[in-house]
Design a protein that fits this description.
The complex is a heterodimer of chains A (about 350) and B (about 280). Chain A has helices at about 5-20, 90-105, 110-120, 135-140, 165-170, 180-200, 210-215, 220-230, 235-240, 285-305, 315-320, 330-335, and strands at about 1-5, 25-30, 30-35, 65-70, 75, 85-90, 120-125, 150-155, 155-160, 180, 245-255, 260-265, 275, 280. By secondary structure, chain A is an alpha+beta fold. In chain A, the strands form 3 sheets. Chain A has an 8-stranded mixed β-sheet, sandwiched between helices. Chain A has a 4-stranded antiparallel β-sheet with strand order 5-4-12-11, with no helix packed on it. Chain A has a two-stranded antiparallel ribbon with strand order 13-14. In chain A, helix 7 (about 210-215) packs across helix 10 and helix 8 packs across helix 10. Chain A is globular, with a radius of gyration of 21 Å. The N and C termini of chain A lie far apart (about 50 Å). In chain B, the strands form 3 sheets. In chain B, strands 10-9-8-7-11-12-15 form a 7-stranded mixed β-sheet, with helices on both faces. A 6-stranded antiparallel β-sheet of chain B has the order 4-3-6-1-2-5. In chain B, strands 13-14 form a two-stranded antiparallel sheet. Chain B folds into 2 domains: about 15-100, Translation factors (Elongation Factor Tu (Ef-tu), domain 3, Beta Barrel); about 115-235, Nucleotide-binding domain of ferredoxin-NADP reductase (FNR) module (Rossmann fold, 3-Layer(aba) Sandwich). Chain B has 5 helices and 15 strands. In chain B, a hairpin with a 4-residue loop joins strand 1 (about 15-20) and strand 2 (about 25-35). The chains are: A alpha+beta (about 350), B alpha/beta (about 280). Chains A and B meet through strand 4, strand 5, helix 2, helix 3 and strand 11 of A and strand 4 and strand 13 of B.
C-alpha cells in the first residue's frame, strides 16, 4: 500500500503511533544520533546520517537473559514486548535481514526471533549520507523488502510504502495520508539512484562476488599483517557492526547462591581471548589472525552460509577504529591488487 | 517475520550423577542419568553442553558408546571453573545437559569392514573410548584393530582397567607409551608417534581416528602420510572454544567451518587445506 503524507503532518502521525505503541526512534545524542525510546515526536530525527549503534541491539540484546534458574530448575526467559522501531536506514535493515536468516537457520533462536516477530519496523531512505558510508558501492543504499513501512522523503512529502498488515495498521493511525501515484514511485527510484552515488564516501573497486572470490586466495596477503600491526584488539569494530552477532554466555548467581540467570552478552572476534580454551590455548592468538578472520567472515564465511555479502557498508567501523585500520574498503581494495 | 520456534535451544534438561570415579590425578569419569528417562541418543564422537547453574556451561565429549539407556559417561579433566565445580559433585547431584551435538566418527559407514587404527593422545582417549567400545561391541563388523595410547606419565593413563581388557580381545593390538616413565613402568617411552613404527597395518584398508592435544595432530598426520595412509581415511576430532554448541555464537569457527556443527569430527581430507584447522 502506497500513501503520501505532507511533512507537516508527520508529527501528528508519529504522535498517534507513540500513543498506541512503545516506539524506539532515531534521535539526536549530542552531535550524533542513536535509537532510543521515543517519548515525544520532536525528538525524532529522520534526517540523521547514521546511528551510533546498529539497531541489532533491540533484537540481540547486548546483555540478555536466556533463562532463570532456581537450584536445579531452569525456566526459559522469553518475554518480548511488541514495539515499533522507527527510522531504520536501508543498509541496517539489510543487516537485520541477514541476522534473521542466521538466527532462523539450523537451530532457530527463539530469543532473537520472538523479538523480531513482535517488532514493527519503519525504515527510512537516507536523507543525509554519513562521513564513512559506502553502502552505495554494495547496492545496499536502498532496500525493497523486510520492512513494515518504508518512508522516503520526496520534496515536502513522505512516501509511505506499507508492505505488511502491521504497517498498514500503523498508517491507519495517521490523518492526512493521500494516495500515491506513479510519479511518487519514479521520484523514489530517482532518490535510490542518487543515494547509490551519494552513499559512496569510500570507493570500493571490486563488487561483492569479486571480493568473495578473491578471498579464496588472499589468506597470506600482506594487508592482514600490515593493518593488524596497529590493532589494539579493542573490539570497537565488532561492537558497532550491524552484522556482528557473536556472543558469550555466562551465569549470574543471586545472593542466595541458589537462584540466578544465564545471560548472553555481545562478544567480538577481535578481542584477544575470543578463541581461548581452558589450558589455556588460544586458537587465534595473533592479532593478524583475528583481524583477517573478521574480513573473511564479512566477505566470505557468512556469504558462503547465507548467500549475502555480510558487510553492508554502514561505515561505522571506519569511524569507531582509533587507529584507522578498520576500513573494509581499504582492505578489500588491497586484496584485489594481490 | 514468520512463526516463532517454540523450543529454546539454550535451555538445558537436567540429569543426575549416578556414579563418579577418579581416573587419574586430574580426570574423573562421571555417569549421568537424564531425569527425563530418555536416552541422550548420541553416537561416538559427539559432545554435549554441560551446565552447573550459577557456574556456567561447557562442551564436553561423551565417553560412553550409545546403548539406549538414559545414562551416559563423561571423562572430565579438572581444568577450569566449571570442570573444577564438576569435580566437586557427589552422586545424586544435578547437572544441566544440552545435546548431543556435532558430527560422529563414521562407525556405521566408512569404518565398516575396515581395519581400525585408534590414536589416543592424552585426553583424546575420552571421546575415542566411545568409538572403541562401540567397535568392540560390534566386533565382527570391523577388521583388525590397533589402539595406540599415549600419556604424559603412567599416572595419567585413562581407563587403565579397560585398556587391559581391550588388549585381550581377539584381533585387537594395544600399544601404550608415556612421555615420562615412573619407576614401575616397563612399557614404551616416547611421544605417541613413536608407536607407529612398532605396528604394521594395511594403509589401503585402514581407517584411522586421531584425537589428542592440538600440537599432536601435525606430527601424527605426518607419520600416517609416511606410512602411505590416505587422508581420506583419517578422522580427527578438533577442540575449539564453544559457547552455544548450535552454530550461533561464533566462537568455534575454523575458518568458515563451525566445530560444533561441521565437527568436532572431521574427515581430514576435507580440512587438509583449511588453514586454521591443524
Amino acid at each position: 500500500m502506497l500513501k503520501v503524507l505532507d511533512t507537516a503532518e508527520l508529527g501528528t502521525w508519529v504522535e498517534a503511533i507513540i500513543k498506541a505503541h512503545d516506539v524506539i526512534g532515531i534521535q539526536a545524542r549530542a552531535d550524533k544520533f542513536d535509537f532510543g525510546p521515543l517519548a515525544k515526536v520532536q525528538d525524532l530525527r529522520l534526517d540523521y546520517d547514521v546511528s551510533l549503534n546498529a539497531p541489532k541491539r533491540f533484537f540481540l540484546l547486548p546483555d540478555e537473559k536466556l533463562f532463570t534458574f532456581k537450584k536445579d530448575e531452569a525456566k526459559s526467559a522469553q518475554a518480548a514486548e511488541p514495539f515499533v522501531l522507527f527510522g531504520v536506514h536501508p543498509y541496517d535493515l539489510i543487516a537485520l535481514r541477514q541476522l534473521d536468516k542466521l538466527f532462523e537457520m539450523d537451530n532457530p533462536d527463539v530469543h532473537y526471533l520472538s523479538r523480531r516477530a513482535k517488532a514493527i519496523v519503519v525504515a527510512v531512505d537516507v536523507q543525509k549520507p554519513s562521513a564513512h558510508v559506502f553502502a552505495g558501492c554494495l547496492g545496499f543504499e536502498h532496500v525493497e523488502d523486510s520492512y513494515d513501512i518504508l518512508l522516503t522523503k520526496i520534496g515536502n512529502e513522505y512516501l509511505a510504502d506499507a508492505a505488511t498488515a502491521a504497517g498498514e495498521k500503523l498508517i491507519a493511525l495517521g490523518k492526512g495520508f493521500t494516495k500515491a501515484d506513479d510519479t511518487h514511485l519514479a521520484a523514489r527510484k530517482k532518490i535510490w539512484d542518487e543515494n547509490k552515488q551519494a552513499l559512496r564516501r569510500h570507493e570500493l573497486k571490486p563488487n561483492k562476488a569479486q571480493i568473495t572470490a578473491q578471498l579464496e586466495k588472499s589468506y597470506d596477503h600482506k594487508i592482514w599483517k600490515e593493518k593488524a600491526r596497529l590493532c589494539f584488539s579493542c573490539g570497537s569494530c565488532n561492537l558497532v557492526c550491524p552484522t556482528c552477532y557473536c556472543f558469550d554466555v555466562a551465569d549470574r548467581l543471586n545472593w542466595d547462591l541458589a537462584s540466578g540467570e544465564r545471560v548472553r552478552t555481545w562478544d567480538g572476534c577481535m578481542l584477544e581471548d575470543f578463541a581461548t580454551v581452558a589450558g589455556p590455548h588460544n586458537f587465534r592468538n595473533q592479532r593478524e589472525a583475528r583481524y583477517r578472520h573478521r574480513y573473511y567472515r564479512k566477505g566470505k564465511y557468512v556469504p558462503d552460509k547465507i548467500g549475502e555479502f555480510s558487510c553492508v557498508g554502514c561505515g561505522r567501523c571506519i569511524g569507531a577504529c582509533v587507529t584507522h585500520i578498520a576500513n573494509p574498503v581499504e582492505v578489500y581494495n588491497a586484496i584485489m591488487e594481490a | 517475520m514468520g512463526k516463532i520456534a517454540l523450543k529454546d535451544i539454550y535451555l538445558p534438561e537436567t540429569a543426575t550423577a549416578v556414579a563418579i570415579r577418579q581416573l587419574t590425578p586430574t580426570e574423573k569419569c562421571f555417569e549421568f542419568k537424564l531425569d527425563s528417562g530418555k536416552s541422550l541418543g548420541h553416537m561416538p564422537g559427539q559432545f554435549a553442553e554441560i551446565s552447573l547453574f550459577g557456574i556456567g556451561e561447557a562442551p564436553i565429549s561423551i565417553s560412553s558408546p550409545p546403548h539406549g539407556e538414559p545414562t551416559f559417561e563423561m571423562g572430565i579433566r579438572q581444568v577450569g571453573s566449571l570442570t573444577g565445580a564438576l569435580h566437586r559433585l557427589s552422586v545424586g547431584d544435578k547437572i544441566g545437559v544440552r545435546g548431543p551435538y556435532g558430527t560422529t566418527f563414521p562407525v556405521t559407514t566408512a569404518m565398516k569392514g575396515k581395519d581400525i587404527l585408534f590414536v589416543c593422545a592424552g585426553i583424546g582417549m575420552i571421546p575415542l573410548r566411545s568409538a572403541i567400545k562401540y567397535v568392540l561391541s560390534h566386533r565382527k563388523e570391523y577388521g583388525k584393530i590397533h589402539i595406540l595410547s599415549g600419556t604424559r606419565t603412567p599416572a595419567f593413563r585413562l581407563f587403565s582397567d579397560e585398556l587391559e581388557q581391550w588388549g585381550k580381545v581377539d584381533g585387537v593390538r594395544l600399544l601404550e607409551t608415556v612421555d615420562q616413565p615412573d619407576d614401575g613402568w616397563k612399557g614404551n617411552v616416547g611421544v605417541i608417534t613413536t608407536l607407529f613404527s612398532k605396528i604394521s597395518f594395511d594403509p589401503k584398508n585402514t581407517v584411522a581416528l586421531i584425537v589428542g592435544p592440538p600440537v599432536m595432530y601435525k606430527f601424527a598426520l605426518l607419520e600416517l602420510r609416511k606410512l602411505e595412509m590416505s587422508y581420506a581415511n583419517v578422522y580427527v576430532s578438533l577442540e575449539r572454544k564453544m559457547k552455544c554448541g548450535v552454530g550461533k555464537c561464533g566462537h568455534c569457527q575454523i575458518n568458515g567451518l563451525y566445530a560444533c556443527q561441521d565437527g568436532p569430527v572431521f574427515r581430514y581430507s576435507d580440512i587438509a587445506e583449511t588453514r586454521e584447522a591443524i
